[in-house]
Amino acid sequence: MNNKAWGTQWEQEFCNLLAAQGFWVHFISPAPDGSQPFDVIAVKAGEAYAYDCKTCAANWFSIDRLEDNQVMAFEKWLRCGNRMPEVAILHNDKIYLVSYAHLKGFGRVRLNDDGSTSVHRGKL
After folding, report:
1. What are the b/e assignments for 46-84, b being 16+ CB within 10 Å?
2. What is the pTM of this model?
3. Which residues contact 20 (CB under 8 A, 6 or more apart)?
4. How far apart are CA 82 and CA 51, in angstroms?
5. Which element (helix H / strand E) includes 55?
6. What are the distances in angstroms from CA 6 to CA 2, 77, 111?
7. How far is CA 90 from the centre of its chain?
8. Which CATH number does the domain housing residue 64 bear?
9. How far apart are CA 70 and CA 11, in angstroms?
């Protein structure tokens, strides 16, 4: 499976995981040129959440993986008074929910193989 297909599959799976947890979920379809502000808006109990879904084979995830339009969308999301957006990273069958603030502040995050900062994808 190529990277694009793997990423698209992960986006759909993440939407399904959130919906199973009682969230109203909307996947933001990419524009014809492939751009999109982020992948998912989820709402539960009056709180809106913004997620960008990424797959990662390496042990580090860098903010450089976010495209400029995604960073601008996250910044606008925050200026509108919403909660901190997150990146849902799939790495070694584990899900890492990393806040945009962390990525912005540190530039990258280590994806621990011991699972200390992750949730197994079957347990979200």
Report:
1. eeebbbbbbbbeeeebebebbeeebbebbeebeeeeeee
2. 0.86
3. none
4. 12
5. strand 47-55
6. 6, 27, 18
7. 9
8. 3.40.1350.10
9. 15
Give me the number of domains the chain comprises.
1
* Polymer length of the chain: 124
**Using CA atoms, how far apart are residues 1 and 52, in angstroms rounded to an integer?**
20
Closest CA to 87 of 57, 58, 115, 56: 56
pLDDT digits 0-9 by tens, 4-34: 666 789 999 999 999 999 999 999 988 777 6
Structure tokens at 35: 């751009």
User: What are 80's two structure tokens?
Assistant: 């509108």
Show the domain range for 88: 3-120
